[in-house]
Predict the 3D structure of the following.
Amino acid sequence: AANIVGLATAGFERSGGFGGITDMDAWAISSNYSVSSGSNTITTNWYQFSTASNTHFPKKGDSMSQSSGIWTFPKTGFWTVDFMFGCYNVDNNSGTYFGFQMFFSTDTGGSYDRFYTAYGNMTDNNDHGELFVRAYIDVTNVSTNRLKFNTNMAASKTVFGDADEMRTGAIFTRIGDT
């Protein structure tokens, strides 16, 4: 995954105001939904959180695009992707872990490299859990680079969503030129 940049190696070339940030956008899941065990792309209930009338998120620059859970970037450059994931064990399922994965493609989604995975434990009925990851990505081609988020569960769970606050969602920030 040559396009994944670690914090220690990111030599960002800052430009413009707002600390060099030229684009910032946020998306969230609008309502709870059930997800089955295994790895499943998060495809449903996405809405642009940064432009919702009830939020105060500071959108800047161009917007991300999403179709059936596959994300495209509006510009090349170094990007951070902050992903928050929340869920609960509504049916007291026996599976003890919940998690998510981030995947990146450089060939228009023909193949994906998994580059982040996060897990938490959940054992009792109505247990709640949340996870957070910040990823650094070098987007070199807006025509071929793609991103997706997958749930990864031991047993079915309910993913948190809300039309008024970000309970599961992503913040995409362009932090410099590639």
Observations:
- The CA atoms of residues 29 and 45 lie 5 Å apart.
- Residues 1-18 have pLDDT under 50 and may be disordered.
- The longest strand covers residues 77-88.
- The radius of gyration is 16 Å.
